[in-house]
Design brief:
By secondary structure, this protein is α/β, with parallel strands linked by helices. It contains 8 helices and 7 strands; from the N terminus they run E-H-E-H-E-H-E-H-E-E-H-H-E-H-H. About 40% of the residues lie in helices and about 15% in strands. The radius of gyration is 17 Å and the shape is globular. The N and C termini lie far apart (about 50 Å).
């Protein structure tokens, strides 16, 4: 059995419930449909990472049928906890206390993330590294990986702020943890980041994000999608 676990945190796409920071410029229906494409492309990124057990940590509680149909090849785990930090801690700790020697969790908002970055997270955890983080351009992180539970690192840092990465690194130093940083990338939460995604897709042909690429090609005139 593989002892390296890779999870993605995801929600079932629903208008008004997913990618709400893209509304406006997008309508709730278009934003949810776009997120469905992000999710499909993220699962393909995961499938390109070798020698790992793959899983989806999902919300809401009744979304297991949706995700079972979407990714029958992946383990399904319902997210537990009131805050994102609690949910990440439960997910990583449960994995590390059962079958995993290394556990990594990534977001579902970075459809063009290079699979090599995710594979690198597992590689650096083979060395004297306690925590690996994938920095986002907005001040957060797109990925965190551990080889021992670190509940304080996840529960004591306020999430969804522009200083998540900075605060996580400061707490890691206080806890005397050895941290490795992956190359910086971006997630897509705002109209400006959506424009960045469009620009990237317009200049690359690397095969990543085919679902997102087709969707945006089919919606070239949605308000705010181009800048």
């Amino acid at each position: 059995m593989l002892d390296r676990s890779l999870f993605v945190v995801a929600k079932q796409p629903a208008p008004g419930q997913t990618k709400t920071r893209l509304c406006p410029p997008l309508s709730a229906q278009v934003a949810a449909a776009l997120y469905a494409c992000f999710l499909q492309d993220t699962l393909e990124v995961m499938r390109r990472v070798p020698d790992v057990t793959r899983g989806i940590a999902y919300l809401p509680a009744d979304a297991d049928g949706y995700f079972r149909q979407l990714a029958p090849d992946m383990e399904l785990v319902q997210q537990r906890g009131d805050s994102l930090g609690e949910r990440l801690d439960h997910l990583l700790t449960d994995a590390l206390r059962t079958t995993a020697r290394q556990a990594v969790v990534m977001d579902s908002d970075s459809p063009t993330l290079p699979p090599a970055f995710v594979a690198q997270a597992f590689s650096v955890l083979e060395g004297p590294v306690d925590v690996v983080l994938g920095p986002c351009r907005d001040g957060g992180y797109y990925l965190i990986g551990l080889k021992e539970p670190q509940p304080r690192l996840l529960r004591e840092v306020p999430m969804s702020t522009p200083t998540v990465l900075q605060d996580t690194l400061a707490l890691a130093r206080a806890l005397a943890l050895n941290v490795a940083l992956l190359p910086e990338w971006y997630d897509v939460d705002t109209g400006a980041e959506l424009a960045m995604l469009r620009a990237e897709l317009a200049t690359t042909t690397n095969g990543l994000a085919p679902h997102t690429r087709r969707f945006l090609d089919a919606h070239p005139d949605a308000p705010g999608e181009r800048q």
